[in-house]
Amino acid sequence: MTLQQIEKLRKELDLINDQLLELLNRRAEIVQQIGRIKKENNLPFYDPEREQEMFEKLTEKNSGPFSDETIVHLFKEIAKASLKLQEKETEEQLLVSREMKKEDTKIVVGDLVIGGKIPVMIAGPCAVESREQMKAVASELNRLGVSFLRGGAFKPRTSPYSFQGLGREGLRLMREVADEYGMKVVSEVMSAEQLELAEEYVDIFQIGARNMQNFELLKEVGNAKKPVLLKRGFMATLEELMLAAEYIYARGNTQIILCERGIRTFEHWTRNTLDLSAVPILKLKTHLPVIVDVSHSTGRKDIILPISKAALAAGADGLMVEVHNNPAIARSDAHQQLNLEEFASLMEGLGLIKKNKSGC
Ligand SMILES: O=C(O)C(=O)C[C@]1(C(=O)O)C=C[C@@H](O)C=C1
Q: Is the CB of 28 inside a 6 Å radius of any atom of ligand 1?
């Protein structure tokens, strides 16, 4: 008898559940409509005052048996889910999102491809220091089949007294050496003026972690005609990285490579904490190629091989590694730059030598 009573009451609950479900989804549709209007008018989705007003109205009407606190808690959850729905719709509408473009974006640089079948290696010293240094590094990279030469001419240094880079002279040097070996140049720019200056010398503009949210600079590279390697800020969420990429893409420059380079956490045995989950998540959420900077993320050489393997296993389209012909006398990041032998054994360990030689 008791069981039958429960059965009967459960049937009643099932009917109420159906009604609640229908009402919740009807509510969600209205929330989406509000979201679209807010987006069109550049209004924030989150409206705490409206939520408060709504909770007050509900508690006034509430006659129990649920307490006011419980009612507010339940409706807060509904408002939270509604907000997510509004945000998700916007995220799906981002030009860089997978929803907007199903197929992977391939970045074509001359006869090379980033985001194709073969992972690329972007390597070179932290900073361009001299022709001898660049030649020594580039000739070894070339021997190993690496086609992308990196090197900083404008260095964003924490201390204003640290080496700031050779500027235009550094770019010129790197271009000359790269041309000698048929390599492509990747270098960081930090301002619109540097961008203009670098245009003549580089093949890929790098936007460093510190400038990931320099929106004016993002707009400038968005107007540029060359690919952009956008590094994740060390305090930035993946969503913020995606939105930063959107700034560039929305301006018309669709050639963007995302780069995970570690984020700041409490861990101090690595320079930053490499967030490897960023790789598959970004590949799911966006159609852009994703690479991993294994030097800046870890800040140490002794784990570079397993970390590089892990990055590639996670689906990275390439790696960025700092290599110097004589790291001991490097003017920046001395401890994390690989020497030429160490780099050769990394390439060997990753099985990349042949692949990079046969072209990407
Ligand atoms: O009324 C709005 O402005 C909405 O966007 C709807 C809604 C809600 O679910 O009720 C959602 C998010 C806002 O923070 C406030 C309220």
A: no
